[in-house]
Structure formats: C-alpha cells, structure tokens
Amino acid sequence: MIAWLAALVAPLNLALFHLGSDAVSRAEALGFVTGGLCVWLTVRGHIANFGVGIANSGFFLVLFASSRLWADSALQIVFIALGVIGWWQWLFGGADRTALVVRRATPRVLLASVVAVVVGTFGLTLLLRATDDAAPFWDALTTALSLVAQWLLNTKKIETWYFWIAADCVYVPLYLSKDLNLTAVVYVLFLGLCVAGLLAWRRAGAADRALEPVVPA
Question: Is residue 8 in some structural domain?
C-alpha cells in the first residue's frame, strides 16, 4: 500500500525548475498556484475557495511529507476535512440553513481560540520532538494557529485573518530554513492577501450589520 502510494505521488516530487538552492518540485509549484488562488477567493468571500483549498492541501501534503514536516503534513489532511465542512457551513450554516454572513467573533470565542493555540502548541511540540520533526516548536505553533484560523474561517469570523497573519509570519522563516524558497515566497504573498482580506471582511461585516432590521426597544 505504501509503495503504491509512493509511486502515485512520485511525479509530484520531480524538480520542475530551480530557485536558488531550492529544486522546486511540481507539488511546490502547484501549491504556489492553488494557494494564491485560494486566498484570493477567500478575500473575495467566494465559496470556491474551499474546492481550490482542498486541492492545495493535497499538493502541500506531498511537499511537506518529503521535507519531514510531519505536523504540517498531518495538518493538510485536517484541512481537507475542514474544507469539506466549511463548504457546507458557508452554504447552510446560517439561521434556518441560510448562507453564512461575515461576523465578529465573541470575546468567549476569541479566548477559546487563544487557549487552543497555547495548549495545542504545547502538546504538539512534545509529540513532534518524539517523532524527529525538523522544527518541533515552530511546526507545532503554525499547526495550532492554522487550525484555529481555519475554524474561524469556516464560521466566517473576521478574526480568522489575525490568526492567518500570525501563522504566515512564522511560516516564512520556517520554510526558508528548509530551503523551500518558493513556498516562502508564497507565504509572503499570503501575508499581503491576509491583510487585504482583513480589510475586505471588515467592510463586508459592517455592510451586513447595516442591513439588519432594527429591533424596537
């Protein structure tokens, strides 16, 4: 089974071109394209971001597994599952199974998110140290941040962008240290798109609230 799977993904690990000392594989190049498209669609609030994001996670799963970034590899599997769930939530997660609209997270949700990042980072660091991960703490931190960010994205909360921005600020130096130069460039672009997404979702949230009916006192 493992040999069959390795043969299936082997073409994705072939070098497509070189960027400095980084031999850019097909998986890394396809991750670049689908990743940028996914974030752009998310900034625009387009539900197609989930389908593109699922494909992106598949390419990055191959890439990270070949670089021994085990937490990031496992994270892609979780992202695929969360992508399917988020797709459904955006379509039917609102009141009476209507489409979700952009909202701010409550203080309780934000507190739970921060606690989840801290606890998740601690637990994953211990686990990854035992599995010979290449960068246990940083891999754990970005994994925890990304999972919380994806959960907030699935529920269309504006604060998702703060967690994505924090994760991207760690991802860039992490990937540079692993000679994944193209992927590092991708995450610099992601960082800019996340700032644009934060601004766009703030405007969308304000517009949605303005359209809500006023309830008499």
Answer: no
Residue 10 lies in a domain: no
Three-state SS at 19: strand
Does 151 map to a domain?
Answer: yes
Q: Rounded to whole angstroms, how far apart are CA atoms 142 and 195?
A: 18
Assessment of whether the complete model's pTM goes beyond 0.85: no
Alpha helices, DSSP H only, in the chain? 2-9, 26-43, 49-66, 70-92, 107-129, 136-154, 160-177, 181-211
Checking if the pLDDT of 207 tops 90, the result is no
For residue 15, what is the enclosing H or E element? strand 15-19
Question: What is the spatial distance between Cα 27 and Cα 50, in angstroms, rounded to a whole number?
Answer: 19
| CA 66, 35, 39, 50 torsion-angle sign | negative
Q: How far is CA 109 from CA 47, 95, 181, in A?
A: 23, 19, 35
